[in-house]
Amino acid sequence: MVRTATVTDKLKQIKIFPQRLLQPETAEKLLNELDQVKGVVRMLISGKNLPRKITCGPGTGKDVNHPDRIIIHVSGCAFELHVIVGEVLVEVEDESAVEELRKACERALPFPFEIKRGYFIKSKPTLTDFGKYGFKSRTDETINLEDERILGLVDPHAKVDTNICMVKAEENP
Fold it and tell me: For 116, which of 15, 22, 50, 137 could close a Cys bridge (C-beta 3.0–4.6 Å)?
């Protein structure tokens, strides 16, 4: 999930690490609580993969009907969970949002969690980004992105970028 703000090195990144893997309903509740915190720029969920098909063994190619692979709604966007949520990475504009993030986690999670500060989501293009998105020109080392906020939010091995939910911040009149 991405808000309308530019990605810079000044933004703070927070890792929310629950002591348990999240059920889809809990993940949806947590993401909606985090979305209400003022100053959140972008969020990234990660965890154990939920494949669509069996990739090896006697059932290769058969569908996997995992009950946790459902569609959740966050901030008006609907998307299918492709992972069992194990951690949430959040990028905020300033340090003042961290305490609000903690309160949002306490409201949404009925069990303990850890919050860590650091740099977890990349903010500058890597070689993979150059290969995935292409160059503007041979001399210019910037990549041809419509929106630089998707850096670090896309799986470099994914064939399509369908699991990004762009949310526009409300503009004040």
Answer: 15
Which CATH architecture describes the domain 12-150?
A: 2-Layer Sandwich (3.30)
Q: How many helices (H) and strands (E) does the chain have?
A: 3, 6
pLDDT mean over 25-45:
93
pLDDT at 94: 87
Contacts (Cβ under 8 Å, ≥6 apart) of 143: 125, 129, 130, 133, 134, 135, 136
In whole angstroms, what is the distance from residue 51 CA to residue 38 CA?
Answer: 34
- For 37-73, give the DSSP string: STTEEEEEEEEEE--SB--SSTTTT-B---TT--EEE
| Percent of the chain at pLDDT exceeding 70 | 66
How many Cα neighbours within 13 Å face the side chain of 134? 5
Q: Please give the mean pLDDT across all residues of the chain.
A: 79
pLDDT value at residue 63: 92
Can you tell me whether residue 157 is helix, strand or coil? coil
Whole-prediction pTM value? Answer: 0.76
Dist CA 104 CA 101 (whole Å) = 5
